[in-house]
Amino acid sequence: MKVDKELAEGRMQRHALLFIWAVIGTIGLLFCLYGQYQLGWARASAHWPVVSGRVITSKVTTHTDEEGTTYSDKIKYVYTVDEAEYQSGIVVIGGHEYSAHNVVARYPLGAKVSVAYDPNKPSRAVLEPGVESYGYQTLGLSMMLGALFMATLFNFIFRRALNEEKNTLDHLLILLFKMVAFPITVCKGNLWVLGGMVGLSVWLSSLEIHPVLTNGSAIFGGLYGVIWVLMLWICFMAWLYELRDRAMERQAAKQKRKSKP
Question: How many Cβ atoms are within 10 Å of 70's Cβ, its own excluded?
């Protein structure tokens, strides 16, 4: 009875985590859809009519918290369409990649600017028409892929912890783990051998050979380069802890000798 209760609790926790990652993935999908919506407007803006405008606000704002200081720009400009004055603060539809100081330098206070506006809705305008931005899509795709990876990993861990029967996905993940660990197993965990393999793959990726070889080498070098750095860091930290333990042992032995009459 106790085992059944533990299994039920474990499955409930697994389902709760899967639900959380599903929500995160859904939010990522919404970011992607919104980014595509903005991308459509950005492409359409290349054909909008252009009028003269003037920058009325151009400044950098700062926000400081525990993580540090962040900077953001605040741009406002006015323009006139059919004797009606409008305001907007959009530099690039979908967001720009300029730094806050850079965009303020590009559009200083009082500067004369060319403003492209939507003829069907004159209040919608942009300073740089036709410039495509993929910031929302990149963020959304990162969230979706991250949520999928974490959901798959946690689902696998919980299923193994609950001793549930392996399904097809479990077998695929186990095979993937074995494939990822294979080069490390071949070099028997030797950092220098693995580092040599990474260096060789990086060198091969720089040669103009067949794309399969160069792309495969680049993927291998990137993946196992990260693993190699992590392994090197772990070994370095273990060495530091060993030095600390030895120093503490020598200090303890020294104090013990001093305490003897």
Answer: 11
Q: 3-state DSSP call for residue 13?
A: helix
Q: What share of the chain is helix, strand, coil (3-state, %, to 5)?
A: 60, 20, 20
- pTM score of the predicted model: 0.63
CB 126 within 8 A of CB 133: no
For residues 73 and 75, what is the distance between their CA atoms, to the nearest angstrom? 6
Q: How far apart are the first and last CA of the chain?
A: 63
How far, in Å, CA of 192 to CA of 179, rounded?
A: 20
Residue 28: per-residue pLDDT: 93
Which tokens hold the place of 238? 């273990």
Of 115-124, 151-160, 173-182, 212-221, where does mean pLDDT reach its minimum?
Answer: 173-182
Residues 6+ apart with CB under 8 A from 215: 205
Q: Which token pair is 60? A: 């950098």
CA distance 140 to 136: 6
Q: DSSP class of residue 45?
A: G
Instruction: List, for residues 39-51, the tens digit of each pLDDT value.
Output: 999 999 999 999 9
pLDDT of residue 15: 82
Distance from C-alpha of 244 to C-alpha of 237, rounded to nearest angstrom: 11
